[in-house]
Amino acid sequence: TAIRLLAGLERAAEGRIVADDHVLLDTRSKVFVKPHRRRIGLVFQDALLFPHLSVKANLTYGRWFTPKADRKIGFDPVVDVLGIGHLLERRPDTLSGGERQRVAIGRALLTSPRLLLMDEPLASLDANRKLEILPFIERLRDEFTIPLVYVSHAVEEVARLATHVVRLDQGRVAAAGTAAEVLGPASLAQAANRFDAISILSAPVKKHLPEYGLTLLDHPAGDIVVPGKVEAGGLVRVAIRATNVTLAVGRPGNVSVRTVLHGEVIKLETDDGPFALATIVLHGGEVLKAYATRLATDGLGLDVGDEVQALVKAVAIDERGVPGLRVVSGGGQPE
Fold first, then answer.
1. Cα angle 114, 159, 276; round to 5
2. Rg, Å, the chain Cα set
3. Ordered per-residue pLDDT tens for the chain, 335 residues
4. Closest Cα partner for 319 from 120, 132, 98, 125?
5. Which element (helix H / strand E) includes 277?
6. Bridge partners for 240 per DSSP
7. Is the pTM of this model over 0.85?
8. Are 226 and 238 in contact (CB under 8 A)?
9. Which phi and psi (to 5°) does residue 201 adopt?
C-alpha cells in the first residue's frame, strides 16, 4: 500500500507526500499529481518486460515519458553498473530471472526518476539469483543519487541495503531508525518473532582463506568468520540472527564454531515462558542480542555484568546480509 501511494496508483483519503521538494499529494490543498507525471521509477517482483522488444528497446522505452531536460541518467552508465551490456540484442524470453530483473531495474533508472521504488524485487528469484542481484542494487544505491524505497520481508536484504529502516505493522509505523535499531529484538515480549530478530555488526576485512572459501572480518570482540569471499574496502555489515548465537561462560571447549566474540551481559530478560533474551555489549561497543532458553541461562548461572563469549557458526550467516560477497557466475555458489 505504501508503494502504491507513493507511485500514485492509489489515492490516500488524507495525507501529504513530498519527493525532492515536489508535492505529489496534499489532500488539504487538493493536490494530486498523476502517476505518469511523478517521475517515479517502479520495480515489481516480476520484471514485466515487453516480450516483443529487445533488451535495449525495453531499457529505452521509459525514457520517452521523461522530458529531455530531465534525462539526467545516461544509458551507458546504467548498462555498466548493472552488467547487462552483453544482453542488449536479446529478447526477454532468453534471459534468466536475475537478468530480467536487472533489465527491469535499468528501465526504471533510465527514466531519471526522482524516487526509485522496489516492491520485493527479489521475491520471485531463487537463492542464487538473489545473491547475483544484490550487489547490483548496492551499486545503484551508491553510484546514483536517487532515493530508494525498498519493500521486503527478507530481513537480511534489508540489513544489507538499508541506511534507514521503517517497520510497518498493521498499516502503522512500529519502528524507524537504523537497521541495527529496528531489526534487533526490542524485548522478550517479541519472542514469537525471534527468528526475524537480527543484530548488525560492522568490521573490516582481515584476510581471505581461499583454501576454505571463507573471509575473516577483524572485529574488536574477535574475528568474524563469514562464508565466501568478501571484497575489502570500508566496513562490512554482517547480519546475525539472535537465534543463531550460542553463549558460553569461560573459555569454550573444543567446538567447531570459529567466531567467538567477547562481551559483557548488560541486560537479561526472562519471564514464565521458555526463553531468555540477553543483550551483550561486545568489545568495541557494538550490541549483540542472543536468544536462549531459561534452562540454559540458569545452567550457566548467567547474570547482568557477566563476561561471556558469543559463538556464531559461519554456516548460519546468510550471504544476503553480507555486502561485497563474490559469487561464481556459473554455479552460483560463494567463492
1. 145
2. 23
3. 889 999 999 999 999 999 888 999 999 999 999 998 888 888 888 878 999 999 999 999 878 778 788 888 888 988 888 889 999 999 999 998 889 988 998 999 888 888 899 998 888 888 777 877 888 888 888 888 788 999 998 888 888 888 899 998 888 898 899 887 888 766 666 666 788 788 889 899 999 999 998 999 999 999 999 988 887 777 888 889 899 999 999 877 788 899 999 999 999 998 888 999 999 999 999 999 999 999 999 999 999 999 999 999 998 887 666 765 543 333 333 33
4. 132
5. strand 275-282
6. 199
7. no
8. yes
9. -115, 150
* Amino acid identity, position 73: I
Q: Which three cell numbers stand for residue 177?
A: 531508525
Counting DSSP H helices and E strands in the chain, the numbers are 8, 20
Q: Which three cell numbers stand for residue 278?
A: 540477553
C-alpha–C-alpha distance, residues 242 and 181, integer Å: 14
Angle, in degrees to the nearest 10, between helices 127-143 and 97-109: 20
Length of the chain (residues): 335
- Amino acid at site 276: A
